[in-house]
Specification:
3 domains; two-stranded antiparallel sheet; 3-methyladenine DNA Glycosylase II, Chain A, domain 3; Alpha-Beta Plaits
Length: 283
């Protein structure tokens, strides 16, 4: 063997052994011992990394739970079952899980909203927002389904009217859809709330009605029909519900001329009902 080649082989082998020993020593010296409690907590968390808890992922939440820095019901997506298991692992008393549902506060779909232009860009709500989108209403749903794509629980779909639908029985309240909406049309609400104003348009009544058949026209009838003073108020030409005061009944909905304020609509839609209706329409 040529001496130069032999020396090169020996040198490379020596360097390989040196770096291998260095990595072994570094691994032992710098290794961070994982808290077994974090591992147990991580096993019971849903592993969706949805961010509803306010942290980057389930691992970070598990670390916070192990340090008792967050409540045992911090995992919204896990529901009561995960809350109970987390409490058992931590050796503390369980509490009621935070039951939230996504609510799409716009009913201005293809049949109700006026379109002024033909949008030819990227078919996403975020891209359409940069140009204003197709609809004359500057507050309404674009209808391109960013929220549906963001949902990891198959709890949403687009209906035949170009609007997203939330499946009440599948939504875990993670809030991913709300964060994906560039117009803040989707809000997270406790399940005991049933009265909603399905409009975000802040224009004056006449202008709002011109761009959408189901827009709030600021007529104040719902304000007058609410049994508690201050339960519903007008703010920026839009009916606003004060959930601390307003009774959850259908009284404020009865005289609404555009039917933009409704009661009990969310719980009517389940995933099974939605797809059954689609099959019926197709047949």
């Amino acid at each position: 063997m040529d001496s130069a080649v032999f020396i090169s082989v020996i040198a490379m082998g020596g360097l390989g052994i040196f770096f291998a020993l260095f990595l072994v020593i570094a691994d032992k010296r710098l290794r961070v011992e994982e808290d077994p409690l974090v591992g147990r907590l991580l096993e019971v968390l849903p592993q969706t990394n949805c961010g509803a808890c306010g942290y980057a992922g389930c691992l970070q939440l598990a670390e916070k739970l192990a340090l008792h820095e967050v409540a045992v019901n911090a995992c919204t997506a896990g529901g009561q079952e995960v809350t109970d298991m987390v409490a058992e692992i931590l050796g503390v008393e369980s509490v009621e899980a935070q039951a939230l549902k996504a609510v799409v506060l716009c009913r201005g779909g293809d049949r109700e909203a006026v379109r002024t232009v033909r949008y030819r860009g990227d078919r996403t709500c975020l891209a359409a927002e940069l140009s204003g989108g197709e609809k004359a209403c500057g507050y309404g749903c674009h209808g391109y389904g960013d929220c549906v794509r963001a949902c990891r629980f198959d709890a949403m779909a687009m209906n035949d009217n170009g609007l997203p639908v939330v499946f009440y029985d599948k939504c875990v309240g993670c809030g991913a859809c709300a964060r994906a909406c560039p117009r803040d049309i989707i809000e997270m609400h406790p399940v005991d709330r049933k009265l909603f104003v399905y409009c975000k348009n802040k224009d004056k009544g006449a202008k709002a009605r011109k761009v959408c058949k189901v827009a709030c026209v600021a007529c104040t009838l719902c304000v007058k029909d609410c049994k508690v003073e201050g339960g519903i108020t007008m703010k920026d030409n839009l009916a606003t519900i004060n959930y601390e005061l307003c009774p959850q009944t259908d009284e404020p909905t009865k005289r609404c001329p555009t039917k933009c304020i409704l009661f009990g609509e969310e719980e009517k839609m389940t995933r099974e009902d939605f797809y059954a209706s689609r099959i019926k329409q197709a047949s």
